[in-house]
Amino acid sequence: MLRSSEGLRHVRYEIRGRLARRAHELERLGYEIISLNIGNPGLFGFRTPESLRLAMIENLANAEGYCHQKGIFPAREAIVMQQQARGVQGVTADEVFIGNGVSELIDLALRALLNDGDEVLVPSPDYPLWTAAVTLNRGRAVHYPCRPENGFVPDPEEIARLVTPRTRALVVINPNNPTGAVYPRSVLEGIARLAESRSLVLFSDEVYDQILYDGAEFVPMATLVRDTLCATLSGLSKVYRACGYRVGWAVFSGRLRGASDYLSALELLSSLRLCSNVPGQWAVQTALGGYQSIQELIAPGGRLYESRRAILASVGESRYLQVTPPAGAMYAFVGVRTGEFADFDDQRFALDLLEQKHVLVAPGVSFNVPYRTHFRITNLPDAVLLRQVFARIEEVLAGYAAGRRGGAKGKVVEASGRFK
């Protein structure tokens, strides 16, 4: 038996895990699966803006060799200009690292920081790559609650009680994935003061920074942090619908004095992987400096806005569902009212929905929460398809309710038993 590394024992990424593999099996059997488990704009007909594609094509001749380990200068300078326009001070191209998506930079940034047993404060629910990357890099993820009853907004005082002498960093995801919460300025200020007072590195995942609804205000964390190191992470994948380009960036600001050893370690790790995808980097300057087409999609009448409205309307009409309206990002973290269901389990529900109705969602437990009553759905499909999806969800839940009253549980167990 060839066994995997012990270092992977506690690493999970269920968004592309067993349920997704079962969905692929069903597709090979000829079933059409509606895959709502990941935020993949290209799957639902969104195109990367043509200006980005042209910028990449026109510079292919300049993209055939390795570039600097931090990324090409025009891209890094464009990122600096965006940060300066947002009020972030003291940043130059030297403080910008470009990676193969934000995902790679999360891994590298934590690898350069953590020693065995170091702790990182991570939100719950979280984007699970953060927890996985902490674990892979010998650290311990300590989850601070973003409670449903508080609109999934964290409490800085509650976070402070989790800090120990081993705590090295604090992660903020704003706008939040999976909940769509957009944090108020007062909460972000409280988190910034906490990080400063405890000398914690503050990682701010802001990849959904321009995807906002109904007047929600996005406050860049770097504008609030002065006396500790702040890393702002973003990229082309969501706002610019360019997931496959694999272009993300990390911008370091705040107290850079005293962080030279850490930043040198991060540059070493960046050098070991030579460089990130060069053709995609040539789209950055055009993306950040050009027309922001995302504004059309998030305004009333726009595709993302209307799909979000369809989700809220469907949940409002449901007998079994509830949701905190997402103020940003491209997801809703939907809760199930479990009063009518004995021992409701989000993973079993997700499996039954897949097996019976051919809809793939991500169960809430995938996002490191202690409860099993939620699931995440993306608002990337159009409103008509989302209405159909929620009709199928209602049918599954109605079957659960009937089973509780009339003994139809066997059907659910049978569906679950087909899991391979």
Order of strands, widest sheet? 2-8-7-6-5-3-4
- Just name the CATH architecture of the largest domain: 3-Layer(aba) Sandwich
Strand content: 5-15%
The SSE order reads: HEHHEHEHEHEHEEEHHHHHEEHEEEHH
Q: Report the span from N to C terminus.
A: 20 Å
Please provide the count of β strands.
13
In quaternary terms, these chains amount to single chain
Shape designation: globular
CATH fold field value of the largest domain = Aspartate Aminotransferase, domain 2
Radius of gyration: 22 Å
Number of domains: 2
CATH superfamily descriptor of the largest domain: Type I PLP-dependent aspartate aminotransferase-like (Major domain)
Average pLDDT confidence is 93
> What characterizes the major β-sheet?
7 strands, mixed
Low-confidence stretches: 405-420
CATH class bucket of the largest domain: Alpha Beta
Describe this structure in words.
- The structure is a single chain.
- With 420 residues, this protein is α/β, with parallel strands linked by helices.
- The protein folds into 2 domains: 162 residues, Aspartate Aminotransferase, domain 1 (Alpha-Beta Complex); 240 residues, Aspartate Aminotransferase, domain 2.
- It is built from 15 helices and 13 strands.
- Helix 4 runs parallel beside helix 5.
What would a concise description of this structure say?
This protein is an alpha/beta fold. Helix content is 37%, strand content 15%.
